């Protein structure tokens, strides 16, 4: 991946939230205080946040780079390349967290099915409570269908919020990228600026020049997976067989990860990590858009899982056989002009605040130095008086 790799901004956000406002020597103190008093940040991923901060703290290479980087470099994203080393670990941790949430959701839905099915299958409510400790205010003795519905709604809302935050993070990423580009142009003379603009337009054209992208979840898209990934004859395409082939854990559902895996072939038409014009952060946003679209079309009960029945019903719809064309990211601006303007104003305000803080700190430093000089002068005067007194006392004795 290039420097704009996946979840780099998530790492940078954590970095900035900790290091932008806390002196380097005070970071460990803050973390120790959080741990000592068990302070909850209020974030859904509070424990994950602590783990990542702790990881960054222990990474000697990263700490050395951090100590040799000033705030302006951090603001301009120059430190982000150093996050390449840790970004894989961050992505792995975040993906694992997401998988755990999906697995918890699957557990709840299975328990609900057992209760509704009237199969006299006992539901281990204590085991469920252990998985959902943050909801342990519920009835500690029994679980009813209504209780499970409440838990399912809570789990799905967590996942929805996760997706919303990813969209917002991507929007901020795109705006920052454009801001950095414009700031770079300001440093160039007319000829260099013209060359840079021409190169930028050329890269946009190269990125947009790709094979047609199939509508996610359509017959054509799934047949392409059937043929190229599964190595089967497209004429023999069978939705039920396809579902069973790609339900990798065999639980009778497509979860979010299993759905997203179906779009890899489509994404490879648009994105190549070796190409300058292709941004892998944008690829992950496209993957998310595709998955959300298919979920909205197919997941009829909105439990964020696609059952075999839901999938088969969807394959009989007109949208499956004759879908609209799919508009990729380059055809949809991630932000409006007003949002970009607000973002620029926010950055300007942040810079102004930082400059004011730097000015205030410099004033405090100057005042401390003045007071120190005054104190030193007073000490010298006092020492001179003492010396004179000693000389006088010696003269009297003689």
Walkthrough of the structure:
The chain is mainly alpha-helical. The chain folds into two domains: 1-187, no CATH class; 211-334, Recoverin, domain 1 (Orthogonal Bundle), CATH 1.10.238. It is 69% helix and 1% strand. A two-stranded antiparallel sheet has the order 1-2. Helix 1 crosses helix 3, helix 6 packs antiparallel against helix 8 (145-186) and helix 8 runs antiparallel to helix 14. Residues 178-218 are annotated as: Disordered.
Shape type: elongated
User: Poorly predicted ranges (pLDDT <50, ≥5 residues)?
Assistant: 1-49, 133-143
Strand count, sense and barrel status of the largest sheet are: 2 strands, antiparallel
Question: Beta-strand percentage?
Answer: under 5%
Residue share in helices?
55-70%
Q: Output the strand order for the largest sheet.
A: 1-2
Average pLDDT metric: 76
Rg for CA atoms:
30 Å
Topology, please?
Elements (H helix, E strand, L loop, with lengths): L7 H12 L7 H10 L9 H13 L1 H8 L3 H5 L8 H34 L7 H7 L13 H42 L3 H19 L10 H11 L9 H8 L6 E2 L1 H6 L2 H7 L9 H19 L7 E2 H7 L3 H4 L15 H61 L1
Antiparallel strand pairs: 1-2
Helix pairs in contact: 1-3, 6-8, 8-14
Membrane topology: Peripheral membrane protein
Keywords: Calcium, Coiled coil, Cytoplasm, DNA-binding, Golgi apparatus, Guanine-nucleotide releasing factor, Membrane, Metal-binding, Phosphoprotein, Repeat, Secreted, Signal
GO molecular function, one term: guanyl-nucleotide exchange factor activity
